[in-house]
């Protein structure tokens, strides 16, 4: 852990300082401003494609940012994080199809199911070393994917949930209306990003950084490493599940691909594109990936080849994500300007 991180962590552990309260209030205002801008976007641009794009960005942005809580902040590389994205989509879809409960109840119930599943899987996985953790999470994801394919009477098998997802209005909100779904997705995105940022900047967030940098030293000073890893594993699962719920509402269904290993691969790719050392890196990566997918698939049938070249460019050329590169370049420029001044 760097000296700056240690100093910030120590300050955070001391208690709520006036500066911390001011910063939190400022972040609340920024979050509200971002939501207002997104909510007013349809009044400026009437394109339905733009609204669809933002909804997809909300789903994948929450998923990728939650993965970065594990990868970037805790040093836990999960190859199976997509299972919670799929669990959110299927859990919510089945809840609405089979029970007909109000949407807020189905949302809360889906997160509760995700919490229980993540707690069980996490209790097993976080005890393992890095490479074993990665592959055991992948094994659990393939188990869930296989269950979805084989339990045809419940999940629809390889055809997915058919018949659409009922979306009865609640509190004057009708999610069958694209505009209402768009605003709700933006609200969930902003709230999710705000909460994850608060986690990352909290004393617990700096504890995660310490574990990432040196888990043995963290345990020596009294930190319960296993409990901290399990906590962030479950929290990340809840945010990923929320992304899955948004996607289920968007497509009015759920498909086995939502829980396949390629979803986890896309999450890692998004983090590579945007960067893992900056909080908004995964969000930027999600936007870039969706733009690439939408553009490349229209121009060529060899979209996999093009995306592979993009991965090589970031992995070998930049050796970091876009936001990591921009932040590092800006810091170097400020330092150079300071030396000249």
Features:
0% strand, disordered N terminus, ABC transporter involved in vitamin B12 uptake, BtuC, mainly alpha, 341 residues
Measured distance between first and last alpha carbons:
31 Å
In CATH, the architecture is Orthogonal Bundle
Q: What is the residue-averaged pLDDT? A: 89
The CATH class assignment is Mainly Alpha
Strand tally is 0
How many separate structural domains? 1
> Could you please say which CATH topology applies here?
ABC transporter involved in vitamin B12 uptake, BtuC
The helix fraction, in percent, is: over 70%
How would a crystallographer describe the biggest sheet? none
Region (Disordered): 1-20
Membrane topology: Multi-pass membrane protein
Protein name: Branched-chain amino acid ABC transporter permease
Pfam families: BPD_transp_2 (PF02653)
Write a brief structural summary.
The chain is built from 15 helices and no strands. The chain is mostly helical.
Outline the structure in words.
It is built from 15 helices and no strands. The chain has a single domain, classed as Orthogonal Bundle (ABC transporter involved in vitamin B12 uptake, BtuC). The N terminus is likely disordered. Helix 2 packs antiparallel against helix 8, helix 4 packs antiparallel against helix 5 and helix 8 runs antiparallel to helix 11. By secondary structure, the protein is mainly α.
């Amino acid at each position: 852990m760097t000296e700056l991180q240690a100093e910030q962590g120590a300050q955070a552990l001391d208690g709520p300082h006036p500066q911390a309260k001011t910063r939190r209030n400022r972040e609340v205002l920024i979050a509200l401003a971002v939501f207002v801008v997104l909510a007013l976007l349809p009044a400026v641009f009437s394109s339905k494609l733009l609204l669809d794009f933002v909804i997809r960005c909300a789903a994948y942005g929450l998923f990728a940012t939650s993965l970065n809580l594990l990868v970037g902040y805790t040093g836990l590389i999960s190859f199976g994080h997509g299972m919670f994205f799929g669990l959110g989509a299927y859990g919510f879809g089945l809840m609405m199809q089979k029970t007909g409960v109000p949407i807020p109840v189905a949302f809360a119930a889906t997160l509760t199911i995700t919490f229980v599943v993540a707690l069980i899987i996490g209790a097993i996985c976080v005890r393992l070393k890095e490479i074993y953790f990665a592959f055991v999470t992948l094994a659990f994801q393939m188990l869930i994917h296989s269950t979805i394919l084989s339990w045809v009477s419940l999940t629809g098998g390889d055809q997915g949930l058919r018949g659409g997802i009922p979306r009865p209005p609640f509190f004057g909100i009708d999610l069958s209306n694209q505009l209402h779904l768009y605003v709700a997705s933006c609200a969930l995105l902003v709230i999710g990003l705000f909460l994850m940022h608060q986690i990352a900047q909290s004393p617990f967030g700096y504890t995660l950084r310490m574990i990432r940098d040196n888990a043995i030293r963290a345990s020596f000073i009294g930190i319960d490493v296993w409990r901290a890893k399990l906590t962030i594993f479950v929290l990340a699962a809840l945010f990923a599940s929320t992304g899955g719920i948004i996607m289920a509402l968007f497509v009015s269904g759920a498909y086995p691909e939502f829980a396949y290993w390629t979803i986890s691969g896309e999450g890692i790719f998004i983090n590579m594109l945007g960067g893992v050392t900056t909080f908004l890196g995964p969000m930027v990566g999600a936007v870039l990936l969706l733009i690439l997918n939408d553009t490349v698939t229209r121009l060529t049938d060899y979209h996999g080849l093009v995306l592979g070249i993009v991965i090589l460019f970031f992995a070998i050329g930049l050796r970091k994500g876009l936001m990591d590169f921009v932040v590092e370049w800006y810091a170097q420029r400020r330092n150079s300007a300071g030396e000249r001044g």
